[in-house]
Automatic annotation (TrEMBL):
Superkingdom per UniProt: Bacteria
Key words, A-Z: Signal
The name this protein goes by in its record: Uncharacterized protein (DUF1501 family)
Span of the signal peptide: 1-27
Chain segments carrying region Disordered: 232-254
Native organism: Micromonospora pisi
Alphabetical list of InterPro entries matching this protein: DUF1501, TAT_signal
Length: 416
C-alpha cells in the first residue's frame, strides 16, 4: 500500500484517534531514540513484534508431514517427510527455515499452533485489524500496544515501528508510538520535499483528520535524516532497500528487508534506548498461486533475519532480554486451489524466541479433517499469547489492556 493510500486508510478506518495519531506521528529519528537510556533498568525486557502481512500459510510453515490428510488436501504443494526440518515425529519446519530449526533444537524457539479467534474474518484488513487491536468481537479504535503505552506513560519512544506508516497496533487512546521508516529512496523519488513540507504543515483552521494526516507527513520527512544518522553510527552502511524488489504489497509490509529493520532494532537495543516495543514487518504472503516457491523464498528471508538477529542478541546483556513474536493475520485454507496456491484461511502459528522463552511445541494441532467450512478450527485464542507477553515481557497487567481477558500461557516462559 503506498503512503497516500495508507494515510487515507488510517483516517477512514477510525482505528487511530486524532489526538493519538498526531501525538505518535511526530518526526522521530534514531538520534531521538538514542537520547534516553532504558528507563526500565537492566531487568527490563524488550518485545519485538514481527508481522507477516498477506496471510502466511501455517500448514506449509509448520508442516504436519505425517498426516495423510495434509498430503491428500494439497498434493502438488505438500512437503514430504524427507524435505522438512523435523521437529518431532509428526511435524517439521519448512525446508527454508534451517536457522530457526537450529534454535528449536537448542530450546530457544517456541511454536504455538492453532492460534486464532472466534468467528474468523478472511478479509486481510479486517483480520489484521482484529490482531492489532485485540478486539475480535467488534471493530476497535486502539491497538493493544497503544493501550499498553497509555498505561506506561505515553512516551512515543516506548513503542516504535520501523515501517512506512504508523500501524494501528501502536495507537492508544491518549497517544501513540513513533513511526521511524527505514526506506527513504521511494519517498525522495516521488514528491518533491517542498510538496511534502506543505503536506506536513499544520493550519489553525484545518479539521482533526487533516491535522493528523499532516502529522503523518511530518514523520515521513524524517526518513532521509534518519538513514544518514544510521549510516554514520553503524560500522557498515545500512541499506535495506533493494532497487529490484517491489514495494510493499496492498496487504501491507515494510518496503525494506526484514534484516535491515531488525538491524536497526539491534542497534537500538545495544544502545539501551528507552523503547520497550519494536514493530517490524514483511509482506507478500498472499499466495493464491504458485505458493511453494514463493513462500519458501519469503520464509528463507524470515529465517535468515530472525536467526541472525537471535545470534546477535545473544552476545549482549541487553540483547538477552529481547523477546520476538512472529504472527500473520490468518493462515490459509487446508485444501490447495487449482493454481497450486492456497486461499484465505483461519488459524495458524505464532513463533516466540528470546529471553526466557521455553522452547517447544505448544497448543493443540488443529485437525485437518474436522473443519469449519474447509478451514482449521483454532485451538488457542491469540489473546492468551498477548496476555502472556504483556505479563512476562512488558510487566503489565493484561486485564487493563485486554478488557479483563482471563487467558494466559505461563508455560511459554521460564520463571525469572
Amino acid at each position: 500500500m503506498d503512503i497516500l493510500t495508507r494515510r487515507k486508510f488510517l483516517i477512514a478506518s477510525g482505528v487511530v484517534g486524532a489526538g493519538a495519531l498526531a501525538a505518535g506521528a511526530a518526526a522521530y529519528t534514531l538520534t531521538d531514540l538514542l537520547a534516553t537510556g532504558n528507563e526500565q533498568g537492566p531487568g527490563g525486557r524488550t518485545l519485538v513484534l514481527v508481522t507477516l502481512y498477506g496471510g502466511n500459510d501455517g500448514l506449509n510453515t509448520v508442516v504436519p508431514y505425517a498426516d495423510p490428510a495434509y498430503h491428500d488436501a494439497r498434493p502438488e504443494i505438500a512437503y514430504s517427510a524427507e524435505e522438512v526440518k523435523r521437529l518431532d515425529d509428526s511435524v517439521g519446519l519448512n525446508p527454508a527455515m534451517g536457522g530457526l530449526h537450529g534454535l528449536f533444537g537448542q530450546g530457544r524457539l517456541a511454536i504455538v499452533r492453532g492460534v486464532g479467534y472466534p468467528k474468523p474474518d478472511r478479509s486481510h484488513f479486517r483480520s489484521m485489524d482484529i490482531w492489532q487491536t485485540a478486539s475480535p468481537d467488534r471493530p476497535g479504535n486502539t491497538g493493544w500496544i497503544g493501550r499498553w503505552l497509555d498505561g506506561a506513560g505515553g512516551d512515543p519512544r516506548l513503542a516504535v515501528s520501523f515501517e512506512s506508516a504508523l500501524p494501528p497496533l501502536l495507537a492508544g487512546v491518549h497517544g501513540a508510538g513513533a513511526s521511524v521508516p527505514v526506506a527513504g529512496r521511494a519517498m525522495r523519488g516521488g514528491l518533491p520535499d517542498r510538496t511534502l513540507a506543505a503536506f506536513a504543515a499544520d493550519s489553525p483552521d484545518e479539521s482533526p483528520a487533516q491535522a493528523r494526516a499532516a502529522a503523518c507527513f511530518a514523520d515521513l520527512r524524517s526518513v532521509d535524516q534518519m538513514i544518514a544518522q544510521v549510516r554514520d553510527a553503524a560500522e557498515e552502511p545500512v541499506d535495506g532497500t533493494d532497487p529490484e524488489r517491489p514495494a510493499a504489497t496492498s496487504t501491507g509490509g515494510a518496503r525494506t528487508s526484514l534484516e535491515a529493520q531488525l538491524d536497526l532494532v539491534a542497534q537500538c537495543v545495544e544502545a539501551r534506548v528507552a523503547t520497550r516495543v519494536f514493530s517490524v514487518s514483511l509482506g507478500g504472503f498472499d499466495s493464491h498461486a504458485d505458493e511453494k516457491q514463493l513462500q519458501a523464498v519469503l520464509l528463507g528471508q524470515v529465517d535468515r533475519a530472525l536467526s541472525g538477529f537471535a545470534a546477535r542478541m545473544s552476545r549482549t546483556e541487553a540483547g538477552r532480554e529481547v523477546v520476538v513474536a512472529v504472527y500473520s493475520e490468518f493462515g490459509r485454507r487446508v485444501r490447495a486451489n487449482a493454481s497450486e496456491g492456497t486461499d484465505h484461511g483461519t488459524a495458524s502459528n505464532v513463533f516466540l524466541l528470546g529471553a526466557g522463552v521455553r522452547g517447544g511445541l505448544y497448543g493443540e494441532q488443529p485437525s485437518l479433517t474436522d473443519l469449519d467450512d474447509g478451514d482449521l478450527k483454532f485451538t488457542v485464542d491469540f489473546r492468551d499469547v498477548y496476555a502472556t507477553l504483556l505479563d512476562r515481557v512488558l510487566g503489565a497487567d493484561p486485564g487493563q489492556v485486554l478488557a479483563d481477558w482471563p487467558g494466559r500461557r505461563d508455560d511459554l516462559f521460564d520463571r525469572v
